[in-house]
Amino acid sequence: MSANCPTQTTPRTIQLAGVVNDSITDGPGIRLTVFVQGCPHHCPGCHNQQTWDFAGGQPTTTEELWQQIQQNPLLSGVTFSGGEPMAQAAALLPLAQRIKQAGLELAIYSGYTFEQLLNLPDPAVRQLLELADTLIDGPFILAQRNLELNFRGSENQRILKAAASLKEGRPVLEEAERWH
User: Fold this and answer.
1) C-alpha distances in Å from residue 168, one per residue of 46, 62, 113
2) What digits encode the pLDDT tens for the residues 107-166?
3) How many domains, the chain?
């Protein structure tokens, strides 16, 4: 990762800000949302400023989070949010692999754009994107805040099909009705 996006954890330990079970605001359906700790973006107006400090939060193992996911048979998916999930891409990989093996949908929020993510030097970022179904990308921009948008805070943020975007090497918008 770049110097402004440190990885604070070992590959099987995630620095966690918190978990929301039965979320209906971080993607369609009933989801478990993993809020990682640490964010280099510091977007003005961010509603998760408590997640900015990379030294904050609680170290949590992949296994602990996987147990929480397994306890809810109603989940349709898991969402990685933050903080900045891509700052802990290597730590999130084992959990993402288990999520996909279980047939659950994986969505990831990132303050980086898709194009910026492709240019990050950490290979775990691309590996994590390869496991994602959906990427909500871009920083929150207070001047573009729109409370009418589903699953986004500002109009610049895009909901992308992760696999199609990677395959085509460009952002491919998610057009499924359930995301809009």
Assistant:
1) 31, 31, 15
2) 999 999 999 999 999 999 999 999 999 999 999 999 999 999 999 999 999 999 999 999
3) 1
Residue 2 lies in a domain: no
Rounded Cα–Cα distance for residues 102 and 180 (Å) = 25
Q: Is the pLDDT confidence value at 34 over 50?
A: yes
Whether the Cβ atoms of residue 135 and residue 165 lie closer than 8 Å to each other: yes
CA distances, 86 to each of 38, 67, 92, 132 (Å): 10, 22, 9, 12
What is the phi/psi pair of residue 34, to 5°? -100, 115
Residue 45, SS3? coil
5 is a domain residue? no
